[in-house]
Amino acid sequence: MADCLFCAIVSGDVPAEVVHTTERTLAFRDLNPQAPLHVLVVPRDHHANAADLAAGDPEASAELVRTAAAVAAAEGYADDYRLVFNTGAGAGQTVFHTHLHVLAGRDLGWPPG
């Protein structure tokens, strides 16, 4: 999509600090980190949210989680990390291209707030 920030990052038109890539995913550091490790993992193909991705390309959904695990392990957090999908504006989604937050390195408490 021409006006999608994450599509522009995937295409290389917008710079990002990329930490991991696969054929189907791209992982890059969040510009406003909420933990010492805060990386976003996105599918290379545009899907508006996690539910759309799961319905349209379930293997890409699984690849996001595999990529997130690889990022956490590479950053030294293989055993303790949180994965978050925000789906819809009411849940805090601000970029409408599926993205998985990988968070680690501090107490992440429950419930999230």
From TrEMBL:
InterPro entries: Histidine_triad_CS (IPR019808), Histidine_triad_HIT (IPR001310), HIT-like (IPR011146), HIT-like_sf (IPR036265)
Domain HIT as annotated: residue spans: 5-113
Transmembrane region(s): none
Motif (Histidine triad motif): 97-101
Pfam entry (one): HIT
Protein name, UniProt field: HIT domain-containing protein
Species assigned in the record: Nocardioides plantarum
